[in-house]
C-alpha cells in the first residue's frame, strides 16, 4: 500500500485484509511497512498510509470477496456488482507453504477465474510467487513449487495473454523473491518493455516527490525496471526441465504456445 500510494495517478487503493488486528499491531511493531511520511505533505496524504484519502481498507476474506463478486457464475444484472480493477496485487501465503489454504489460493479454478473477471479489459494481475529458483533446481511441477506451476498454467488457460516473472532482492527476506505479472491484453505489455529513459520520464510525472523534491521511491527507477524486463537464467533453466519440454528450449527461433516463456523472453529482441 505504501508504494502504491506514492503514485499520483492512483485514485483509489483498496486493501483487503482478513485480520484487522494485524494491521493495528503493524502500526506499533512494523511502522515502516505503512510509513507514508515521505509524501505526507501533499494534499489528502498522511504519515500513516491508511489515513490517506485514497486508501480503502476492508477487513474481510479476500478470496470470498473475489469469488462472491466476480465469479463467472455471478449474475451481471445484480445491483450490487463491484467495479473491476485496473490492477490487482495478490500478496498472500507462499505457493510452497504446506497448508491446504495455500494450495487453494494458487490452484482454485473458481478463484483464478474470479481474479480474471475482476480486472478491466487491459488489467494486470500481480502475484508474489515465493522464493526465486536456483539454476540447478528441479522444475516447479516436479519440485517444491507445484502450486506456482499450476497457477501459471491456469492463468494461461483462463485468458491472460502475456505472463512475466521478475526477481527482486529488496524484499527483506533471506533470498531473492519472485513476482509474477499477468496481462489480460497482450498490447498492454508494450509498456513493460519501455526504455530506461521513458520510464524515468513517466516516474517524474507521476511519483509524488518528497519535501526536498526527490523521488519518494526507495528502490525503483528506470535502470531497475530494465533489469526486470528479462528473466534470469535460472527461470529459463527450471522452465526447460519440465517433463514435457517446451519446443523453444531446443529451438529458440520458435514461437511458444504459452503466455509464459522465459526462453523466448530472454532470446527475443523487444
Rg, nearest Å: 19 Å
Q: Distance between termini?
A: 31 Å
Oligomer: single chain
Helix run count: 9
Strand order of the largest sheet: 3-4-6-5
Task: Please trace the helix and strand order, writing H or E for each element.
Answer: EHEHEHHEHEEHHHH
Q: How would you sum up the global shape? A: globular
Major sheet size, sense and barrel closure: 4 strands, mixed
SS-based class? alpha/beta
Uncertain residue segments: none
Total beta strands: 6
What are the salient characteristics of this protein?
single chain, 270 residues, alpha/beta, 4-stranded mixed β-sheet, two-stranded parallel sheet, 9 helices, 30% helix
Question: Can you tell me about this structure?
Answer:
With 270 residues, the chain is of the alpha/beta class. It has helices at 20-29, 62-70, 100-107, 109-117, 146-157, 196-206, 222-229, 233-239, 262-267, and strands at 13-16, 55-58, 85-90, 119-131, 162-168, 177-183. The strands form two sheets. Strands 3-4-6-5 form a four-stranded mixed beta sheet. A two-stranded parallel sheet has the order 1-2. Helix 1 links the parallel strand 1 (13-16) and strand 2 (55-58). Helix 2 packs across helix 4 and helix 3 packs parallel to helix 5 (146-157). It is globular, with a radius of gyration of 19 Å. The mean pLDDT is 91.
Helix and strand arrangement:
Blueprint: E1 13-16, H1 20-29, E2 55-58, H2 62-70, E3 85-90, H3 100-107, H4 109-117, E4 119-131, H5 146-157, E5 162-168, E6 177-183, H6 196-206, H7 222-229, H8 233-239, H9 262-267
Parallel strand pairs: 1-2, 3-4
Antiparallel strand pairs: 4-6, 5-6
Helix pairs in contact: 2-4, 3-5, 6-7
